[in-house]
Write a structure and sequence with these properties.
Blueprint: H1 2-12, E1 26-29, E2 32-35, E3 40-42, H2 45-61, E4 63-64, H3 66-80, H4 91-97, E5 107-108, H5 111-127, E6 130-131, H6 144-159, E7 167-168, H7 175-183, H8 191-203, E8 207-208, H9 211-217, H10 227-239, H11 251-267, H12 278-290, H13 304-311, H14 313-316, H15 321-336, H16 341-344, H17 354-360, E9 367-369, E10 375-380, E11 392-397, H18 405-415, H19 435-441, H20 446-453, H21 468-480
Parallel strand pairs: 7-8
Antiparallel strand pairs: 1-2, 2-3, 3-6, 4-5, 9-10, 10-11
Helix pairs in contact: 2-3, 2-5, 3-4, 6-8, 10-12, 11-12, 13-15, 15-18
Length: 488
């Protein structure tokens, strides 16, 4: 074929650029990567990196000239041909270019432009690629109900991994699709597609939202929520119902559901006053009083003695050395640095976007050991209390026993060399904010505990309890005016 094509173009006198010839199922043409196996057209990695770099530089500069704005808008317009939602998040940039009165003057970016550019920077890798599907003859005859369910199935196929351990609200104007998802079955031909949706949701711990079903069944408007709608919904969930997904839940669970609904209202720009009303809060408190939470297995706070037991040779006997190194380093650093679970763990889905992982999670570059090994600097790229997302530097000191974080971190880095952007630990769970208990037992003041744990409020008080020895001492002082240690 190539020889015939070359002979034909030569005969016609047409110029060719043979350096751009490509063969295979994945080739680049006109600046776009075409994959005939997955039937997608997407940006090549170089152009993807260029787009992210240009947007990041623009966000850092916070201002543009007309020429710079036009160049950026033009390049992102090219990208939009194969980037889902690309044009949606480009409109305000084009509007911004039309506001220039002098071509060489600088204009600050508007809030709308910044919001759109943040989308390009953070979500472009996820939305890179346009999908094409050739309908089989039988598919052209499918009922609209089946096609509606298939659309939801495709959404779960492409994006469900990003929704793991979350609640997903499915908005559809098709009654069969909605009822099928709520009940878990349908009599239509879309049952196979529905089954795949529910299997995917179950495997990734995805919960489908039920508030919409309550409003539909009671023929009420979903958004915005009203006092009457919320009140009836709270009562129905507190006592339970035979309606789909309207089973009984505890008052504490209802409180979390209400917080989720409030968050949706914030995202949609709706009023949240109804969630602050005393009537709604009293209903939630009533649910808690009528149906108190079941007692949970007692969990001891993490103290230094418990940590030493976890690190002992007896506890790690028979353990894989790799696991021991990772666990020992993670446990001691988490304890010493008052780290929260989400600050030193990650999920498998977080590794999909390596660029974002390197900027938001703990990696090797986040650790700086002092030359004398008497301390290290732990840089947290993201933290619950770091509202500006500028990162937090934590000084971790050495210790003279087996719970020394410097020793275990040094051992981990020496025996398991890592690239700068690789995950620092290989863990998936854990919580060590209760190191506050040990700090309290060591007679640190509340201000000192709050500073070590980087708490911005009095929430830190939930992480420790007064130990019996201190209670005895206080009680003795109250009764006699003198303090004395309890006898064994």
């Amino acid at each position: 074929i190539d020889s015939d094509y070359n002979a034909l173009t030569d005969a016609l006198g047409l110029l060719r650029n043979d350096t751009k010839n490509a063969a295979g199922t994945q080739v680049e043409a006109l600046g776009v990567e075409i994959d005939t196996i997955t039937m997608t057209a997407r940006l090549p990695q170089k152009k993807l990196d260029k787009a992210v770099q240009l947007v990041t530089e623009t966000l850092n500069a916070r201002r543009l000239t007309l020429l710079q704005a036009q160049k950026l808008a033009g390049f992102l317009s090219f990208c939009s041909a194969v980037v889902t939602l690309g044009r949606t998040y480009l409109r305000r940039l084009w509007t911004f270019t039309s506001t220039f009165t002098k071509p060489r003057s600088f204009r600050p970016l508007t809030d709308g432009v910044i919001e759109d550019l943040v989308w390009w920077r953070d979500l472009l890798p996820r939305f890179n690629g346009a999908f094409s599907h050739t309908y089989e003859p039988y598919e052209r005859e499918l009922h609209i109900n089946t096609n509606e369910i298939r659309a939801i199935e495709l959404a779960f196929k492409h994006w469900a991994i990003y929704w793991a351990h979350a609640t997903v609200i499915v908005h559809t104007d098709n009654t069969t699709a909605e009822i099928g998802i709520l009940k878990g079955h349908t009599k239509s031909a879309g049952m196979d597609n529905l089954r795949q949706i529910l299997i995917t949701a179950a495997s990734l711990d995805i919960q489908l939202h039920a508030q919409r079903s309550f409003c539909r069944l009671s023929q009420r408007e979903t958004w915005p929520a009203t006092r009457e709608t919320l009140g009836l919904w709270i009562v129905q969930r507190a006592f339970g119902s035979n309606a789909p997904h309207m089973g009984q839940v505890q008052g504490t669970t209802l409180q979390s559901y209400l917080s989720a609904l409030r968050s949706v209202h914030v995202d949609l720009g709706l009023s949240i006053n109804v969630f602050e009303e005393d009537h709604i809060q009293r209903l939630i408190q009533g649910a808690k009083n009528l149906f108190p939470a079941q007692s949970r297995r007692k969990r001891l706070p993490i103290t230094r003695d418990i940590l030493l037991d976890v690190l002992s040779k007896r506890a790690t006997r028979g353990e894989d050395p790799i696991d021991t190194r990772n666990l020992n380093a993670a446990f001691t650093v988490a304890f010493s640095g008052f780290l929260r679970m989400g600050e030193f763990t990650y999920k498998a889905s977080d590794l999909i976007d390596t660029r974002r992982f390197a900027t938001e999670r703990l990696t090797k570059r986040c650790i700086t050991l002092s030359a004398t090994r008497d301390h290290m600097i732990l840089h947290l790229p993201r933290s619950k209390t770091d509202h500006d997302n500028t990162g937090v530097d934590i000084v971790v000191a050495t210790a003279a026993d087996d719970a020394c974080p410097i020793h275990h971190m040094d051992t981990l880095l020496q025996q398991e060399p890592k690239e700068d952007g690789q995950p620092l630990f290989r863990l998936s769970n854990g919580a060590f904010t209760r190191a506050a208990q040990h700090a309290y037992n060591q007679h640190l003041s509340q201000d000192q505990i709050q500073a070590l744990g980087r708490w911005g409020s009095n929430a830190f008080k939930r992480y420790y309890k007064t130990n019996p020895q201190r209670l005895f001492s206080l009680q003795r002082q109250f009764l006699t005016g003198h303090t004395a240690p309890p006898t064994n």
